[in-house]
């Protein structure tokens, strides 16, 4: 509202309303006075004989439309607006329009920044999806390795059972050999007793006795060698069993570590999945908000463009009428015998030529500045249509 009041006061000022031209207060003193009634600016009444008969009423709603339409104008459109109005940009209304155009540029930059952030969010989502698939593949590899370790442990356990069975058989053989050794020792004692008892018969059985002793000695040595071999084999088996037990313990430790690692990876996968779902929900919400904001901004820009086009035509008509009225006041008074229709035709012809000149000036400015925004082309087309209509009406 303060901006609107300043704009209305600037228009009510005689020097600003004259567009920065030379003072014509001596020619048209009545044009510099405007009255305000119920928030509406009015020109002098047409019933006043000292004031022009072609005065118009400029309502406050039209001023608000001008303020709203300036929000959707670009820097190139501000030049067109200034050229259409005259030197109004030197007053408060020009500063207001420039400030609103700066706000529009800032909003457009923010929109571009939001688009870039949206693209970065999509890239981050794709990276997280790739990392999730990589973790899933890695988890499957760990599961396969764990299954292979379980199969290897089962195979080792079967080997241990076989070794235990072989050890049991060796123990049985050892016990049998010990029994045989005990039996042999017992027999040797018996034979010694018999030999001691049969010393009287030693002369005749000495050779037999020596042979028997040698045989028994050979048997004993053979049995002793067998026992030594069995003992060495048994010690080797014991060492192997100890090594297998150590390996089994190491494998159990490795398996436990693998299980802990798999559990940690599963927890990490669950956390990543939950975080990804929450992040995806936030991203979807932000994207929906951005889309709604962009659609509302586009609709607002389109609406403001239409309002600006309409108000531009109205302001051009008002300026043309003002120039025609000023020209009539500066020129010689019309003859008293001239018909009203001829004066109307002259006004229409002057308006048509003025609109044509203004259209040519706009074309030249369009060629110099180039096509910088989509709204500029629409305004140019609309102005050309207005100039063509005015030229046709004069014909």
TrEMBL record:
Keywords: Coiled coil. Residues 126-143 have a biased composition (Polar residues). It comes from the Eukaryota. Residues 379-395 have a biased composition (Basic residues). Residues 345-371 have a biased composition (Basic and acidic residues). Residues 248-282 form a coiled coil. Residues 63-92, 123-146, 328-395 are annotated as: Disordered. The keyword Nucleus does not apply. Residues 63-83 have a biased composition (Low complexity). This is SWI5-dependent HO expression protein 3. It comes from Exophiala bonariae.
């Amino acid at each position: 509202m303060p901006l609107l009041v300043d704009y209305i006061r600037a228009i009510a000022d005689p020097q600003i309303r004259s567009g920065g031209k030379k003072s014509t207060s001596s020619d048209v003193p009545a044009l510099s006075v405007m009255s305000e009634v119920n928030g509406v600016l009015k020109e002098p009444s047409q019933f006043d004989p000292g004031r022009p008969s072609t005065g118009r009423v400029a309502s406050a709603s039209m001023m608000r439309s001008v303020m709203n339409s300036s929000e959707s104008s670009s820097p190139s459109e501000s030049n067109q607006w200034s050229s259409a109005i005259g030197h109004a940009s030197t007053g408060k209304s020009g500063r207001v329009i420039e400030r609103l155009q700066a706000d529009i540029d800032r909003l457009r930059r923010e929109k571009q920044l939001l688009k870039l952030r949206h693209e970065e969010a999509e890239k981050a989502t794709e990276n997280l999806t790739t990392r999730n698939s990589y973790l899933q593949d890695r988890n499957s590899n760990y599961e396969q390795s764990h299954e292979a370790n379980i199969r290897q442990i089962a195979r080792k356990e079967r080997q241990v059972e076989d070794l235990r069975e072989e050890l049991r058989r060796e123990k049985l053989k050892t016990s049998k050999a010990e029994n045989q050794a005990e039996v042999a020792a017992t027999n040797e004692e018996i034979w010694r007793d018999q030999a001691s008892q049969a010393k009287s018969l030693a002369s005749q059985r000495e050779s037999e006795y020596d042979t028997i002793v040698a045989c028994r000695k050979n048997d004993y040595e053979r049995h002793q060698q067998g026992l030594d071999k069995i003992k060495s084999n048994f010690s080797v088996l014991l060492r192997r069993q100890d090594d297998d037990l150590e390996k089994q313990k190491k494998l159990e430790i490795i398996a436990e570590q693998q299980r802990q690692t798999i559990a940690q990876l599963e927890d990490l996968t669950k956390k990543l999945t939950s975080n990804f779902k929450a992040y995806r929900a936030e991203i979807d919400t932000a994207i929906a908000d951005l889309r709604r904001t962009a659609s509302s901004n586009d609709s607002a820009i389109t609406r403001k463009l239409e309002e600006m086009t309409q108000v531009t035509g109205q302001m051009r008509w008002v300026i043309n009428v003002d120039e025609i009225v000023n020209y009539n006041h500066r020129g010689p008074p019309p003859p008293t015998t001239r018909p009203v229709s001829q004066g109307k035709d002259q006004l229409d012809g002057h308006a048509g030529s003025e609109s044509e000149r203004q259209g040519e000036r706009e074309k030249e400015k369009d060629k110099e500045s180039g096509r910088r925004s989509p709204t500029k082309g629409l305004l140019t087309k609309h102005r050309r249509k207005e100039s063509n209509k005015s030229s046709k009406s004069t014909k």
